[in-house]
Amino acid sequence: MKDQEFDILLNKFIEETISSDELAILKRSEKFESYQKILNATSDFQTPTINVSDSYEAFLRKTQLENKETKPVIKLRKAYIMAGIAASLVFLFGLFQFLNSDQKFQTSYGEQLSVFLPDSSEVVLNASSFVKFNKKEWAKNRIVNLEGEAFFKVKKGSKFKVITKEGTVSVLGTQFNVNEYANFLEVQCFEGKVLVERNKKQQILTKGEAVRQIKTNEFEKWNFSKEKPSWKNFETNFNNTPLIYIIENFKKTYGVEVTSEKVNLEKRFSGSFPNKDIKIALETISNSMNLDYSIKNKKVILRNK
Q: 10 Å Cβ neighbour count for 111?
C-alpha cells in the first residue's frame, strides 16, 4: 500500500467514515497495528493534572519502606519517570500536529487519487497533480490549493474555494473540473454553479457549461453533455485546445519528454485519446494534426509530415 493511500484510509478511520471494505484494506497494512495502538491510547487523552513531585515523593516513600538500600536507584528512576512523561507529551503533541496540519496529496505520471476532505467533499486528482488543504481550519475556511487537474464533488455549506496559480473557482455545493497549466485555466461545471475568476475577469458557469482562458485573452465558453470528466475513465478529451496544452497533458499522463520540430503549437485539436496506451495516443494526435512522430527511451519528437 502506498503512503498516500494509507494516509487517506487512516484519516477516514480516525473520523469514523471508513467503509468495511476500506477497513479491511487498511488492516492489511503493517503500519496500521502501530497506529491503532497509538489512537486507542490517545482516544480519551486529556490535559494531565499530575503533580510530578508529589507522585515521585509517594513513590519514594513506598520504596523506602520496602528497601532502604535502594535510594540511588530510586533517584535514577525519578529521572526516568519525568523523562518518560515528557517524552509521552512530546510524542502526543507531535501526533496532534500530524493530524491537524496541512494535508497534502500528490499523484505521479498516469496516476489518479481520490481524496476526501473534512466535510466529506471529494477531490479526485488526475495525473501529476497536487492538492493541499488545512484540516484544522476547514470549518472556518473551505479552501483547497490545486496544481494540475482535479474533479471536485463539493458538499453544500459555506463558500468553497479552489485556488490555483492561474485563477480561483468559488462554489457553494457542486461538481466541477479544474485544469491549469502556466497561462492556462479551464473549468467545467457538471452540477450546480461555479464562479471562475482570473486576470480580473469573472465568468459564472452552470451545469453543462465550460470556460477556458489562455494568457490574458477573453474567456472561451462552450457547452458539453458529459456526466463526468473523461479522464476518470482513463481517456482524455479536448475541445478546440491548442496543441501546446495537448502536449503538456501528454507529458503529465505518460511521463515522457516531448519536443517538436517546426510544428505550429497554436493549432487547435478536438478529440480524445487513451491514457493507458501511448502508441494509440500518439497515432490519434499525429493523424488529427497531420504530424509524424518518433519515440525512443521516453522521448517523443513531433514533426510536420
A: 16
